[in-house]
Design brief:
Distance between the termini: 23 Å
Bound molecules: nickel (II) ion
Number of helices: 3
Number of strands: 7
Structural class: alpha+beta
Shape: globular
CATH class: Alpha Beta
Number of domains: 1
Length: 169
């Protein structure tokens, strides 16, 4: 089932999500819905807070569905290693119409568990590393715009407020 994606400004996007400890039906339904919602958007990643659920879960597929093996479902993720640097254009399903160049490490190693609770160890570089870090930010209540400073941040925030006032957000 598709779930509505919350937009920048929603309270649920600004809180720290809690770890998953129940791998039952509700979690399985949530994950299936998140995968469907991500592909329908379409997007390369989606975190549970974006659909209003304060749990540490994200789904990601940097191939946008072109390669089924690229789909990642990660529960209770943590970055255990990071290296290098990249600065690329980034967007977010919760900030439709906006992008910005964001500096992030080029390679990351993540640990967490899969949807059944089995420990996993993931390595990502380039776009995949960026998606992983972007989704992890969502679990800590942060969007890419929060990584910007000064005028680069203000421009986006002002435009969003204008859209909100016009009832178009
Ligand atoms: Ni996002």
């Amino acid at each position: 089932m598709l779930r509505p994606i919350l937009r920048y400004g929603a309270d649920a996007l600004q809180i720290t999500a809690r770890p998953v400890d129940d791998f039952g039906t509700d979690l399985q339904t949530l994950i299936d819905d998140m995968i469907e919602t991500m592909y329908a958007a379409p997007g390369v990643g989606l975190a549970a807070p974006q659909v209003g659920v304060a749990l540490r879960v994200f789904v990601a597929d940097p191939s946008s569905g072109r390669s089924a093996s690229d789909l990642v479902v990660l529960v209770n993720p943590e970055i255990v290693e990071q290296e290098g640097a990249q600065r690329e254009e980034e967007g977010c399903l919760s900030l439709p119409g906006f992008t910005a160049r964001i500096a992030r490490p080029a390679q990351v190693v993540l640990t967490g568990v899969d949807r059944e609770g089995t420990p996993v160890h993931l390595e990502g570089e380039g776009l995949q590393a960026r998606v992983f870090q972007h989704e992890l930010d969502h679990l800590d209540g942060s969007l890419f715009v929060d990584r910007l400073q000064g005028i680069r941040r203000d421009v986006i925030v002002r435009r969003v407020r204008k859209l909100q006032r016009a009832g178009k957000w």
